[in-house]
Write a structure and sequence with these properties.
Helix content is 33%, strand content 24%. It is of the alpha+beta class. The chain folds into three domains: 97 residues, RNA polymerase II/Efflux pump adaptor protein, barrel-sandwich hybrid domain (OB fold (Dihydrolipoamide Acetyltransferase, E2P)), CATH 2.40.50.100; 59 residues, E3-binding domain (Dihydrolipoamide Transferase, Irregular); 212 residues, Chloramphenicol acetyltransferase-like domain (Chloramphenicol Acetyltransferase). The radius of gyration is 26 Å and the shape is globular. It starts with a strand and ends with a helix.
Length: 405
């Protein structure tokens, strides 16, 4: 009796998914809970595990096809892997996998690979054991695979240096590549255009002297990490300071629904995370009830799972205010785009030593430009400017965060 492998039930906000990559082929032996195929929605990549041990008998859907919840993807024949291996080896069929390919498939499945990295490995038929891993818990990332490919190309080019040069050749490459946008990238594009077309966006700026925050981190960094098993970063300070500033100017924690303004009396803070597939914004629920360590641990967990494809759909929904940090990439100043239907988004940037006047004297101070983009339909310029001033005061004197003054 064959078992049907079906598309898992999709959330209400997701109508369909795209079959990205089959990790098994017809005739392969699979174990229960082993990932068979990656399905890409406009928010996350879903893994579809095998429901039983058995042999993959038939693929109902090809790569690139659009599927909906409950649709049959493949058929599995139950059986022990060892027994199936001995019986399958006794006969050959057009659907059998060549021994070398089977060995490579087994080898790849034994390594921790994110969806994007796995696709590259399979496309280029790479030996996974030769790729150095830099991801968490030994996971091989897309960047690791790209670095491996770049090194291999460089080595190949070096070996061809002594080859004769054809007269008239100017060298270089004029090749082009046409690559379809991922569903996530398409959705990101849609939301960005939607935000620009529907909201009256305006950005205001200020700068923050980070001396005190940097000093606090330096004094308590080791003790904090020893007690909570997580590093004390800048983001928890900005989350805490943003929440306090939002308490004072609640319209920036609100959203517009037709002609109604919905004031949220809780603080679900979205944190923008860059991944190989695009920007994801998971939400820290009820961030006002969390301590610094819990905020930092939540962000670290979000980052690891977002980049490995393990973030959950429900973690990407909602949110009352968003914080994005372009400073980790070296950005000195930017104008972030709203995350609809939110009315505000805070942009952090690179900390840079700049000459600053302190008590009449010029000193070099670690300064950061901060930007607040807001929906002018909901938020007045006065409130936006005062929000940034409050944020600046809280970060330049962190004791205010404890005393809430």
């Amino acid at each position: 009796m064959t078992i049907e492998v079906k598309v898992p039930q999709l959330p209400e906000s997701v109508t369909d998914a795209t079959v990205v990559t089959w990790h098994k082929r017809v005739g392969d032996f699979v174990r229960r809970d082993e990932n068979l195929v990656d399905l890409e929605t406009d928010k996350v990549v879903l893994e579809v595990p095998a429901p039983i041990d058995g042999i993959l008998k038939e693929l109902k859907i090809d790569d690139g096809a659009i599927v909906t919840g409950g649709q049959v993807l493949a058929l599995l024949e139950p059986g022990e892997v060892a027994a199936a291996g001995s019986s399958a080896s006794a006969k050959e069929s057009p659907t059998s996998v060549a021994p070398a390919e089977a060995d490579r498939s087994v080898e790849a499945s034994a390594w921790k690979l994110g969806p994007a990295a796995r696709r590259l490995v399979e496309e280029h038929d790479l030996d996974v054991s030769a790729i150095a891993s830099t991801g968490r818990d030994g996971r091989i990332t897309k960047g690791d695979v790209l670095d491996f490919l770049a090194t291999r190309r460089a080595t190949s080019a070096a070996s061809d240096e002594d080859a004769p040069i054809t007269l008239g050749s100017r060298g270089g490459s004029r090749t082009e590549q046409r690559v379809a946008m991922t569903r996530l990238r398409v959705r990101i594009a849609e939301r960005l255009v939607e935000a620009q077309h529907t909201a009256a966006m305006l950005t205001t700026f200020n700068e923050v002297d980070m001396t005190e925050v940097i000093g606090l981190r330096a004094r308590y960094r080791d003790e904090f990490q020893e007690r909570y098993s997580v590093k004390l970063g800048f983001m928890s300070f900005f989350v805490k300071a943003s929440i306090e500033a939002l308490r004072r100017y609640p319209v920036l924690n609100a959203s517009l629904d037709d002609t109604d303004i919905i004031y949220h009396e809780y603080f679900d803070i979205g944190v923008a995370i860059s991944t190989d597939r695009g920007l994801l914004v998971p939400t820290i629920r009820n961030a006002e009830s969390m301590g610094y360590a819990e905020i930092e641990a939540t962000i670290v967990d979000f980052g690891a799972r977002a980049r490995s494809g393990g973030i959950k759909l429900e973690e990407l929904t909602g949110g009352t205010f968003t914080i994005t940090n372009g400073g980790i990439f070296g950005s000195l100043m930017s104008t972030p785009i709203l995350n609809p239907p939110q009315s505000g988004i805070l942009g952090m940037h690179k900390i840079q030593q700049r000459p600053t006047v302190v008590d009449g004297e010029i000193e070099a101070r670690p300064m950061m430009y901060v930007a607040l983009t807001y929906d002018h339909r909901v938020v007045d310029g006065r409130e936006a400017v005062q929000f940034l001033v409050a944020l600046k005061e809280l970060l330049e004197d962190p004791a205010r965060l404890i005393l809430q003054v």
